[in-house]
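Complex 227.
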Amino acid sequence: MIKVSKNISFIDIHSHKSFNNENEFRIQNIMSYDFDNLNIIASKYYSIGIHPWFINSKNTERELEKLKMVFAKYKNFIALGEAGIDRVKSINLDEQKYVFTQQTMIAESLNKPVIVHCVRAYMDVLEIRKTIHAKVPWIFHEFSENIQVANQLIHNSCYASIGSRILNENDKLNEVVKNIDINYIFVETDEFEGCISEIYEKIAKIRGIKVSQLQRQVLKNFKNIFK
Ligand SMILES: [Zn+2]
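Predicted structure with zinc ion bound:
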C-alpha cells in the first residue's frame, strides 16, 4: 500500500526532477541505464524502464534483467516506465515493439502500472496491450492526441497524463481536457521547469472546477491504480 500523506496537495505522476517539494507526491522517472549511478532515497517513489530512444540491442536482455532485480529489491519502485513506442525517432520499430512488449510482461507479472511514452504509435501500443492481455493500467504520459484517441485509451482501461503542453492556450489539448472523463487523468511535470501547480490550475480552469476538486480527483485516480 502506497501512503500519500495528508499534507500532499499535488500528485505528479511522471517527472525527471530529483527533488520533491513538501506538498508534492512525485514519481521520479529513472532510465534503466542510469540506475547504477542513482542514489536511491527510501522516502521517495520511482518508476524505471527502458526508454525507446535509448534502446541498445546489445544490452536489452541485461537491462530487462536489471528491471526485474530492481522491482524485487526496492518497494519504492512503483511503476514500470517510461517505456513505449516512438514512430518519430528513427529507431527500428520491431526492436521498439520487442523491448516494450517484454517490459509490459514484466509489469503484468509484478502488477505494476506502466508509464507509456507513445508518439504517433497509439495503434501499435494498444495492439500490444491486447496481444499480451494486459490487466495493469497503462498511463500515457504527456498525452497530446485528440478526444477520440483519449476515449479509446479509456475504453482499454488506460489513463492520460496531462503535462505542461496544456499551458499553451492555442493547443488542441485544451478541448480534449475539457471533455475527457476526469476519472482517467493524471497530471505530470515530465521535463517542465515550472511548478506542477500551474498545470493543475490550468486544468481546473478549463474544467470549471476548483483546484482542490481536481486534487481530490487525481488522488482518487491514483488510489484506484496504486494499491
Ligand atoms: Zn519523461
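Strands lie at 10-15, 24-31, 45-49, 77-86, 114-119, 138-140, 159-162, 185-187.
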